[in-house]
């Protein structure tokens, strides 16, 4: 019996090392007794804040002067900036994206106008994407906006990107011949056995997100089944990990599928999903022919973004600190046009919050009405 005791202790220790030790901090975010709480680990908070520090902005420059597009060659996105504005922004971009590699990460040495380097082509498209986010996706990023630093944080390639997965190596024959994307313990889904690539369907494709079907098997007009729920839960695990939040950050604890009583963050997430789809479809996937093979995934696809790309473990990227106010050149709204927040500017925002489906309303004509999307 004594010989078994050390083995028992070791086994218990092995199990507990996979858990977070108490004490944890619990903040009530809803009515008392309904389980609307946010659980956090105070021992991880300091490390997260250290990893999400915002660099000091460069000193502002004086207005006026010749335009960069009139003096420099091949300046397609930032040509309307003055020379001093342009050079200040280029200095900031170098700090945000390639502090070790310097300007030559995106430029041919001695010929900055050259287009014969793929990183320049990619960075130009990324600048356009950044401007699009700040101009058209106010419904998700709000007044905070984004800059290149939001995702890159001093790295040439953002730490969190994703590539297509195809379920891992084949298993035995018969019904077990395919993993169906499961049991790979992927960190993308919290190291669970859930399908490891929920991104291709939901953040690249426009597959509708449904959590609670009313039948175990497809029946009648309801094609949803348990397998669909598993893919959805994989995406929910990604959301939770990426933002460092509980499920009740977005969902009503009494009925997860119901919009009634859900926190407003659920609407923000709804727009964020559609923003991620648009950015992947319009900006990132089309860059696949530009990248060298070394920058592509195992199946030859371009790197793509998901929620973790920007959020990096915190609810608001960089804890909600706005860098855009120091670099308004990255806001596509004209500096001579209406200020953000005015009626004229808000009218240009898309999609509108009213686009979120009401309770019981399907997001598309062929969607079942007995379940509701995220």
Distance between the termini: 53 Å
| Name of the CATH architecture of the domain at 160-170 and 177-311 and 361-374 | Orthogonal Bundle
- CATH superfamily annotation of the domain at 160-170 and 177-311 and 361-374: Photosynthetic Reaction Center, subunit C, domain 2
Share in helix: 25-40%
Average predicted confidence as pLDDT: 81
Protein model, in words:
The protein has a domain at 160-170 and 177-311 and 361-374: Photosynthetic Reaction Center, subunit C, domain 2. 33% of the residues lie in helices and 2% in strands. The protein is built from twelve helices and two strands, in the order H-E-E-H-H-H-H-H-H-H-H-H-H-H. Strands 1-2 form a two-stranded antiparallel ribbon. A hairpin with an 8-residue loop joins strand 1 and strand 2 (37-40). The protein is globular and about 65 Å long.
Keywords:
374 residues, mainly alpha, two-stranded antiparallel sheet, 2% strand
Structure summary:
It is built from twelve helices and two strands, in the order αββααααααααααα. It has 374 residues and is mainly α. It has a domain at 160-170 and 177-311 and 361-374: Photosynthetic Reaction Center, subunit C, domain 2, CATH 1.10.468.
Give the helices and strands, then pairings.
Elements: H1 4-16, E1 25-28, E2 37-40, H2 42-51, H3 68-71, H4 83-97, H5 118-136, H6 138-141, H7 148-152, H8 199-204, H9 226-243, H10 265-284, H11 307-311, H12 343-347
Antiparallel strand pairs: 1-2
